[in-house]
Design a protein that fits this description.
285 residues, globular, two-stranded antiparallel ribbon, 9% strand, five-stranded mixed sheet, disordered C terminus, 52% helix, alpha+beta, 12 helices, single chain
């Protein structure tokens, strides 16, 4: 428990009408202010569509109105694939809009508004902070069942990433955690610089969910499935549940929510890195 506290202290209608491209002159700008996790409002649109705007970016249209960010900017995404994914989120909403379930939309808003006004270097530094307190690096001395479980489940992932990036990370049962070599941090810093701002936004989101750079890169590099990475991030909790039981509905809810957020973040990284557009035929299927 104390180790976890120390770790935390270091982290501050059915189908899409996608073939409808509304004329720019017929569209009225609007934006939604939503910031609280429980934010909801009644659905106020019938059709969802995407259209290509100036500079090759893509916009989301609700009926004939352009979507805007909470900060009042025009909601635009860099490619068609991400636009379709966001439009799907909006189309999947029923009578009530549950904004807290629209993870891709939220990540786009974050990338567009950049509410904390950070640049890439600041985002990379924030992500690397998690490396110093990475979930898979902190080990227990007892009980022996958990010691063995951590070794058997976490060591293969740790060995994979050390070989993949030619770095040394290690693990420790000390409350201070392992001492990460500066060369390792430099290697990861250079790697993260290869991501664009949008992809970094998604990657940082995944890292925050899992409290682990190792597991997050495992997902992005397609070495781990989302389900496996989430399970590995909750190894100690799952071990305790096996021993003492749990409130079933609460455990399932937490697990599914973490999976959903992590999957959305990973998808956002990949879609934000996508440079090609989806062929028009796909929009007509």
């Amino acid at each position: 428990m104390l180790r976890n506290l120390i770790r935390l202290q270091t982290q501050v209608g059915s189908g899409l009408s996608l073939i409808k491209v509304c004329p720019r002159s017929q569209q009225l700008g609007f934006h939604l202010k939503y910031s609280t996790p429980a934010a909801e409002r009644k659905r106020f649109y019938q059709d969802v569509s995407i259209s290509q705007g100036e500079g090759g970016v893509f916009e989301i249209n609700l009926d004939r109105r352009k979507l805007k960010t909470p900060g009042g900017k025009l909601f635009t995404v860099p490619n068609e694939a991400l636009a379709i994914a966001v439009a799907t989120e909006w189309d999947a909403q029923k009578d009530t809009l549950k904004f807290y379930t629209m993870h891709l939309t939220t990540l786009c808003n974050t990338a567009l508004d950049n509410p904390t006004q950070r640049d890439k270097d600041q985002m990379i530094n924030a992500a690397l902070k998690f490396l110093e307190t990475d979930t898979v690096c902190y080990r227990v001395d007892e009980p022996y069942g958990l010691v063995d479980l951590q070794k058997n489940e976490w060591d293969p992932v740790l060995h994979w990433i050390e070989n993949r990036y030619n770095v040394t990370i290690g693990s420790s049962s000390s409350i201070l955690g392992p001492e990460i070599p500066e060369a390792t941090k430099d290697t990861f810093r250079q790697h993260l610089k290869s991501y664009n701002f949008w992809s970094l936004t998604g990657l940082e989101y995944v890292i925050t969910q899992l409290k682990s750079v190792v597991l997050s890169l495992g997902i992005i590099d397609r070495h781990l499935s989302v389900e496996k990475a989430v399970l590995l991030s909750r190894l100690e909790e799952e071990f305790q549940i096996q021993r003492w039981g749990n409130v079933e509905w609460a455990h399932d809810y937490d697990m599914y929510e973490l999976r959903a957020r992590t999957a959305a973040g990973a998808l956002f990284v990949h879609l934000s890195s996508e440079s090609s557009t989806v062929k028009r035929k796909l929009l007509q299927d």
